Amino acid sequence: MDLCGGHPQKLLSSPKFKTLYLVRHAQGIHNVVLEEKRGIDEIGDVHLSPKLFDAPLSPKGVQQVSEQHKQILESGLLNTIELVITSPLRRAMETAVGIFRGHKDINLSHNFPPIVALELCRERMGLYPCDRRESISTRRICFPEIDFTMVESDEDALWREEERENLEEVSARGFRFLKWLWERPEKEIAVVSHGIFLQQTLCALHEKVSIPLEDSLLTRFANCELRSIRIDESDMEAVTVTTYNCIKNVAPPSPSLHTLE
Predict the structure, then answer these.
(1) How many domains does the chain have?
(2) For the range 10-16, what are the long-range contacts, defined as Cβ-Cβ under 8 Å and sequence gap of 24 or more?
(3) Which residue is catalytic, options 123, 165, 169, 225?
(4) Mean pLDDT (whole number) for 240-255
(5) Secondary structure of 111-177 in HEC code, one letter for each residue
(6) At 73, which CATH number?
(7) Could you tell me which residues are beta bridge partners of residue 193?
(8) Strands 17-24 and 226-232
(9) Over the stretch 180-194, which tens digit does the pLDDT of each residue have?
């Protein structure tokens, strides 16, 4: 759970850039189950278990969050980040709140950036109950620290029971997400998301848009791992001219957060 040595990986030189701090959620209960069943033929059936619906963090995941929160406090990063974007899946929101809020009453001297839920950065969608989210009206009660105004549907209208989002669609969604981030006024943004989404987005930048990235950035994120990258104007111009098919219902909201709760 390191901060990439404290030095963001720079994509291309430009005076206009943003620094993104990318975090995979901490260990969820679905991760525990899948690790226990790894190599067993019935692993597909495990993915389909309704008991894993919108999977929460495991006890180990809660500990990972606590450790990452301490590291971020010690690094001073909490006073640098201006905005936190989180997937609306429970494990990601628990990670975002735990890392970037922690015990707020104890850490009054620190900055606490707003946390905003966004559908664009959720995990690969469809088929698996662990990747289906609870209603926003329910989660709003459990996570008062999070702003949900960017999520348009109360129920999960994007999750498809019979079909799983393909990897090209995930990459397309990743590009839309990067464009949305680029249009935001903040320069330092944290993103709490998921293993497949983060890896597909970075690999697409490298392979489809030919943006040079170190091999260490293209591997699967560990649970609660934080990596940092910089994107600049020329990177985003390259992303803009690259088109993909994307699941129709996943449209980026306005970059304006004037309606923050």
Answers:
(1) 1
(2) 10/229, 10/230, 11/205, 11/211, 11/212, 11/213, 11/229, 11/230, 11/231, 11/232, 11/235, 12/211, 12/212, 12/232, 12/234, 12/235, 13/232, 14/232, 14/233, 14/234, 16/232, 16/233
(3) 123
(4) 53
(5) CCCCEEECHHHCCCCCCCHHHCCCCHHHHHHHCCCEECCCCCCCCCCCCCCCCCCCHHHHHHHHHHH
(6) 3.40.50.1240
(7) 24
(8) antiparallel
(9) 998 899 999 999 999
Domain coverage including residue 145: 15-233
Place of tokens 């930048």: 205
- Per annotation, catalytic residue among 25, 30, 47, 194: 25
Active site residue 25: yes
- Residue 1 maps to a domain: no
142 within domain boundaries: yes
Whether residue 241 is contained in a domain is answered as no
18 compared with 61, residue with greater pLDDT = 61
pLDDT at 49 (0 to 100): 81
Q: Verify whether residue 110 is a known catalytic residue.
A: no
- Establish how many alpha carbons lie within 13 A of residue 229's alpha carbon, considering only the half-sphere containing its beta carbon: 24
Whether 261 is covered by a domain: the verdict is no
Q: Name residues whose C-beta falls within 8 Å of residue 243's C-beta, 6 or more positions apart in sequence.
A: none
